[in-house]
Amino acid sequence: MDRPEIILAPGPTPIPPEVLLAQAKPLVYHRGPAFGRLTRQVVKQLKQLFRTGSGEVIVMTSSGTGGLESAIQNCFSPGDEVFVPLAGFFSERWKQLAEAYGLTAHTLDEPWGTRLDPRKVATALAQHPGVKAILLTQSETSTGVIQPIEELARVGREADVLVIVDVVSSLGAVPFAFDDWGIDVAVGGSQKALSASPGIAFVALSERALDAAETARNPRYYFDWRIYRRFAALPDTENPWTPAISVMEGLAAALELYFQDGVDVALQRHQVLSRAVKEGAKALGLDLFGEGLDDNWTVTAIRAPEAADADAICEAIRRDHGCVLAPGQGPLKGSVFRIGHFGYFSELDIVRGLAALEMTLEKLGHPVKRGAAVAAAETVFMETR
Length: 385
Ligand SMILES: Cc1ncc(COP(=O)(O)O)c(C=O)c1O
Description:
Blueprint: E1 6-7, H1 17-23, H2 33-50, E2 56-61, H3 64-75, E3 81-86, H4 89-100, E4 104-109, H5 118-126, E5 131-137, E6 139-140, E7 145-146, H6 149-158, E8 162-166, E9 185-189, E10 200-205, H7 207-215, H8 225-232, H9 245-261, H10 263-283, E11 288-289, E12 299-303, H11 310-321, E13 323-324, E14 326-327, E15 336-340, H12 347-363, H13 372-384
Parallel strand pairs: 1-13, 3-4, 3-5, 5-8, 8-9
Antiparallel strand pairs: 2-10, 6-7, 9-10, 11-12, 12-15, 14-15
The structure holds pyridoxal-5'-phosphate (PLP).
Pyridoxal-5'-phosphate binds next to helix 3.
C-alpha cells in the first residue's frame, strides 16, 4: 500500500491538514478584492514574523532561491563587489548567484560546520573596502549550524555595507529581528518553518535596500522589486504576474496556525525537538556534526557510524520505514546525514523517526540498544514539560 512518506528532512516540511484544505479551496481570482485581502493579511503576518515595522515585505511566486536571486538582481550592478563568508552549501550558493550576475565575490573560507566568528569576518571584510554588501545565511541547512546573524549584521553595519540574509530555513524556527539587527534584505520560503507548500518566497526590504533597487543595473524583470511594489500599492493589492494562488491560500492558513500559539511557542518547540534528536542520536553512540549545537534548532547533522555510510542509512530508512532523512551535501556526502525538526512536527513525530533510525542502524550492523534513542528523547520531553 502506498502511504505518505514520513518527512524528517529540513524542508519541505510536513503540511498540516488545515493548510492542505485551504489549498483545495475554489480559486480566488488574483486581480480583485479577495486576493488583495489575502495578500495584505499574509504580508502583515510575515512582517510580524520578520519583526519589522519599517521594512517592506514582497511575496513572490518562486522557491527560496528565486528570492535570493531577486536580491542579487535588485541590489547590484555588474562589477559590484560583495563579501560572502563561506561555511557550507548555502553560503556557497550566494557566491554562485553573485558570480552568475557578474559580481566579484570576496570570501572568507571556513570549513563546513563552522559557526562564523564575527571578529574574523570583520577583519576579512576590512580587506575589501570596495564591497557593497555582505551575504549571509542564518541557518546553514547543510551543516545544521545557526550563524550569529545579529553580530554578523553589526559587522556589516559598521563597515557600512548592505546586510543581506538568507533566512529560508530559519525564519520562524529560530530568533530573528529584521529591524533591531539592522538587516537590509532577508529572504524566506513557504515550505520550511511555516510548513506551507513550496512555491512562495518572501523578501523583507529596508529603506537602504529599496534605494539600492532604484539604481541597480543588473538585468531583472520577473523579480523586479519596483514592479512588485507598484502592484502592491494598488487599492486591491496585486502581484504583477499570475501568482501561485492556491499556495498563497495555504500560506495564509499556515501563518494563521503559526500565530495561534505565537512565535515564542514555535521557537521553544524547535529548541526542544532539536534537543530530543541530539540526545537520541548520542544515545545510539553517534557523533553530532557542526559547531554551536545548543543553538542549532532547525536541523541536526549526524556523523554516520563506522558500520554504515550515511547515504545507505538514508536509503534503508526510506525503503524500510518510509521515513525521509536528508543525506549529506558536498564534502559531507556519505559521512553525514541530517534530521530536520522545524515546522509542523510533534514530539511523537520525532519519537517515530528515532525508532526507525534505531531499527535501520541495527540492520546495517551498528550496535544499538533498542529503545535507547526513543528513551533519551522522551526524557527531554518529560523534563521540559
Ligand atoms: C538555507 C537555504 N537557503 C536556500 C535554500 C533554497 O531554497 P529552495 O530550494 O526553496 O529554492 C534552502 C533549501 O533547502 C536552504 O535551506
